[in-house]
Each structure stands twice: as structure tokens, then as C-alpha cells.
Request: fold
Amino acid sequence: MSMMRPLGATIGAVVGLALTAAPAFAGSFYPTQDCVAAKLKAAAKKCQTDLKAWAKWDSTQDNNARDMAIAAATTKMSSKFTSADTKAAGKNVDCSQTSLTGSEMGTAIDSAVSGIVTAINTGLSLPTDGHCGGKLVKTAGGACQGLVKDAGQFFKTFGVDPTGTIRDQKDGQVTTKFTSKYNATVTGGCPATTTAADALTQIETARDDMVSNTTTSPDLSTSWTMVTTPFHVPYLGGTLKTICAHNTPYSFFYKRGSGADVNKLLVYYQGGGACWDSLTCSLSVYDPDVTASDNPANATTGFADPNNPSNPFRNWSSVFIAYCTGDVHWGDSSVDIQRNGFQNAKVVEKFAREHFVNPSEVFVTGSSAGAYGAVLHGIYLHEVYLASTFNVMGDAGAGVITPAFRQTQENAWHIQQHLPTYIGIGDPTQLTIADLYDDGAIYYGTPGVHHFAPRGSRFGQYSTAHDDVQTLFYNIMVNGISDAGSWWHSSCDWNRQTLQFSADASAGATNYKYYIGPGSRHTMWGTDRVYTETHGGVQLIVDWLNDMRLSPTWNNVACTDCSLLGSCTGGGNAGASCQHDSECPGGACNQTGSCNGGPNQGGSCQYDSDCPSSTCGNWADSRPDFKCSSGSTNAGATCQRDADCIAGTCQVEASFGVCSNTSTTNANKRCSTDADCDGTAGSCVTEQPFQLNGIVSCPP
Reply:
């Protein structure tokens, strides 16, 4: 969905955490539920009135009287809908789009009732059998009224009974009464051929449609649509300030789903950079506004592809939390720029709960900076959707930071005021990403305790083993922005800490799992690799996410060969994914892309920005540039194997020293001698992680 821009955008993707503040709301009740309850109560009465009118018609065959009664019922229901909308608006809640209009709902109910009547009257000769047929139809009217009213009452008491236990008990009473009365009429001599069970199925289907038509915003567009918010939005007794970094308006995107998945909700937090001081905020390292270029419809690959039948989210209702504040969706300050990410995300939460009222399933995710938005706001969203099955998955946000950066981000973003202390987080100044995932997973992991979905929530993370963007960020924190161009100087320590955080989180909560993929590419959501990549012995990403959602068993995944990924050039496997030349008989494993056009056509590239007026084709994983030796005919040319260099060799990046992570001075920083560290023999460790043939090797 939101692919990171290279180096400029890279400096804004990876940031860590430091957390502490009580939830700003209680999710037990919200005016939308009250509005839905009122509309369903009105729809229940309309259904009963329609069926009573049809019951009379069975005997009288008076079309005019029937139609007048039905039209009057629609008028009355429409008035109730308007009143419900007005009452909600008085509480700063938009309920007008949550349902069909009163007129539209009237048409839908009329159609459903007509089908019920047709089924019940099957086998009857009207008007001769009109008396018994009318009794059956009237009995159906009572059942429809009862079931739909129960559904409305469920929303009225949602905070007390989010699993619908009371509703289900009342439904049982309604259906028992209906079945008894219906069967008594049939056994009393009524020749209807439709059984009580079949009639009840149609009534329940009508009820389900009425619930869907009042809770899933049926008139919203099924295409991605941009919403620009006012600067101030009332919410939960306060006022949200929605704004982008440079005081431009904030916008987000939504689309309604379709078919059987319309009541499933995907919540995606966009990535796109970060900044934390006057220097980084003066650079083009984050996206400062929301424009049409941010529309998720622009992305058509990976899980953003709406036409791929393997995409489990293609028909889901979705909200896309656009990102323009450089604060990983956590900030609430005006230091250097408007860091309003937390409040901007809250305004999308408001929209979501008012338009997608009670999803059966919620999948919260985000890429790069959006991965941090996903875990924080995914925790809070549990308090909005009390009974929805939840999965929260961060894409490329491992949270590896330096101890000093914890205070840096607090100074810049003021994040601690909005942290979910209610889930039991410890000292916010020492919190790691593993802690946050663990605390959320444990708090919401048991059905019926804190959350009321059929199963406990699941939390997970994805990253490649040598993610270039996250490593770049960490390297800036460790060695300063002057070393940004040599991100691999921190590759080994970033990899070590990522693996440790993943293992710690998994050990702390059985409902947290990690996926460590091969290579160095940043983010996976928008790449077709999610459907195809198995190098390094990994499970397909799409299968891993489907297991997360649906399987009783869901496992950690880690590459056994984490070498870089490329694509075969030439030979029998041309175009296939590869890690090593041996996989490309008659060709080579190309671990750099090539420009598709423009002035650099055919030239080596890693990102689209390397190709002016064009794009980078056959994207490959990032690594340092290897150059042909000075004695080569093509000295200085980019290479990845000796065979690329005529009469010479391919020279990898020079080795360098890094202070051991156990060094008491300058841990993980660049060094030349042990004296640059704590002076202990061997404390300055020699590293040279990126090697020929895609191999990445770190000291033990």
C-alpha cells in the first residue's frame, strides 16, 4: 500500500517506543449503537406491519389496502430513522451513513417480506385458504418483529452484553413460539407446504439483512474514497485537532467491502518517514501532507491487489490511516512541526466505528512507520470493537533503537501521554517493542477477559533479517546522520536485536508470533512476494497470515538461509526469485534491479528514485555497492561476482570495526581500535556483513 521512498523516506521509517497513559475512552457504549438500536426497532415494527397487511390480503386480495398499509409503515419507519440520525448528530456522531435511508430500507424490507409471504403461501389456494394462510403470515410477522427487535436491543446493551447472550436467549424464545404456532396451524388443517423451519430461515435471513443494512454503511463507495477532515472534530467528550505537519488539512481513505466479507474490517496505517529534531525535520525524510498520491488505490500489488483471488483482504471493508506527521502515528506535540499523528488516527477511529459498527473480524496492520501505529492503535481498537475477532500485525517495525533515542522521541513526539497503561505496561522509559506486543497480547489473549471475541486476539510481526531501512535508522541513532549512507555499519547489531526482541515477545505470549524473512527488503505488504516467496525455508507470507486469522495452530517463521534475494537473469529460470547463482542454470542471480527507461535505462538500481523518469524493474534487495577492482578492464563498475569484472575481481565493501554490544563504552558504535570502545581486548569487533553471492555474515 504505501511503499517507502528510498534514503529520503528511509530516514523516516524506523523509530522505537517509550510508553505510559490511561486509555482516553471507555468502549462500553457509543451513540452509534443507540442509533442502530432505534433504527432496528423501527425496522422490526415495519416488518411486522408489512406481514400483517399481507395476512389480511390472503383473505381479501385487496391490493390497494395492502399497499397503503405498507407505504404508511415505510413513512413511519423513515421518520424514526430521521429522528435517530438527528439524536446521534446532537452527540457529534454521524449515523446517517451507517444504514440505508428509511426509503431504501423500506424497499429492502418489502422485498424480503414478499419472499416470506410467497414461501408461506406455497401450497395454498387463495383466497380459499386465506384464513389459515393469514394466520401463518401473521405468525411470521410476530417472529420478524421479535428477532429484529432483539437485534436492536443487542446494540442498545452492547457494552453490557457484547457477545449477545441475552439476545440469543430471547431469540430462542421467539423461534420456539413461532415454530409452535406455525406447526399448530399446519397440523390443524392448513395445506401449506413450507415448513416452519424453512419459513424461519427466510425470516432470519431478512433479520440478518436488516442488521447488515444498519451497521455496514451500505451506501458507501466500494472504491477507495478520500475524506478531508475539519481541523477540529468532537469525539468522546473532547475535541480532536486534525492537521498535517505543515498545517495543511488531514485526509484519510476508506472503501466498503463486498459480498460475504463486507462485515470484516481492515485497518491499515500508512508508512512514510519520521523526524525527531530540527535537523531531520528540515530534510525530505517524511511525508508532510496527504494528497491524491497517497490514495491506496494507486497500489495494485501484494495485499493491495483487489483482483488477486489469493488476497484474503480483497473484499474487506477498509480504512486507510494516511500519515503526514513524522511521528509514527503516536505523536501529539508541536515541536518543530505539527506532530499530530495520534489525534489524526483517532479521527479515523471515529469514522470507522460510526460506519462499520460491529465487524465479525478486524485486522490491524501497517508498514514501516505504520507498523508502530498498528500496534498502539490496534490495542485501543479492542475497546471500540468489543466482540470482534482481532489480529494485529506490524510490517517492518521491529523497534530497534538506542537507549538515548527513547528520550529523544519523547521530547519530540510527547508519546507517553497516550500510552495504554491499563494493559499493564511497566516503566515506559524502558519499554521495548517486545514488551508492548507482549502486554497487548496477554491482556487481550483470553476470550471473555477484557475482550469478548470467540477466540483470543493474536499479535505478530514481520521483518526481513537484514531490513535496509530499519537498519539505516538504527545506524543514524548509533553513528549519527553523517553515516547514513553506510547503513550496513549497523546491520549485524540490528539483526541481533531484532531476533532477540522477536524471541522475547514470543516467549512472553503464546498468541504472539514473528516472521523473519530472507534478504534486506523493507516491508512486504505491497509486494507480490507475499504469494510466492519461500526462499530460506520460510512459509508463504499469505499462508502465515491466513494461519494467524483462521488456524488453531500458528507458528513462528524464521529463514534458515537469510541471504539476499534477487531474480534470475538469463538461463532456464529467467525471472525466477533466487538467492544464489546456482539457482539460475545458464544465467545468474541478479541482486540489483535495472532501470526500465529514462536516462539511466539498463543501469543498476535499487529504488525507483534511482531511475529518473522511469522505474526500477526486478527490484532486488539492498546491499553496499560492490565495485570491480582497479585492475579490471571495467574498473569501478558495479558487480556482485568476480565474473562481472573483466580481468579483475569484484571487491566487496571494506571491513570495519564495531564496538561489541557488551562494551561499557560506545557499544555498537564504529571503532578503529579497542581504545574506541571500553579498551577490553577484542571489544572492537571486525565486521564485513555483505559478501559475494548474496551472503550476509555476522560475527557470532
